[in-house]
Amino acid sequence: MSDSSPTDPGILHNRYSGPPTLSQSNGFEIYPMPFFALIAASEPANLAGWYQKALGFSVLQVGPAFHLRRRKYQDLLLVPAQDERIPTLGGPLLYFDADGELEVLAERIEKAGKVGLVNVSGPLATLWNTSELRVTDPTGYRFVFTSRPRDPDPDIQSRVATILTSAHRLGKPV
Question: How much is the pTM?
């Protein structure tokens, strides 16, 4: 048992510094994944191809599952649907950072065509001063790719700065 508080700066640094890199493979860092989505598909190879073409994922590893990665900490595992693992049909919204590339991603999706897409919307401005591109894949999984807006709303920026400054003065984590 530790005497440290969850807000101890040493604990926060260790908790949020990310997992250690274990090796490299296909140009990607190999590390214990802090998060991933597992999608059971009747044809995982076809779905992996769709993710590559439409959303820019790359294949990190194949067999028996397809391990796909778009950016660091943006991992998907596509596994074959079997008797004990029925095909995935939808799931929670998965938010992925696409800062600096949201428009490029939207163009990529447009070029890939609407084949297999259930829904695409955006990029759209949000009330919390981001831009979002929402995509639903062929299995029903919903992805939101989010980015800072090109022209941030100065009123929202000012309110957020005030909140962060107040929290910092009070010594509270945000």
Answer: 0.70
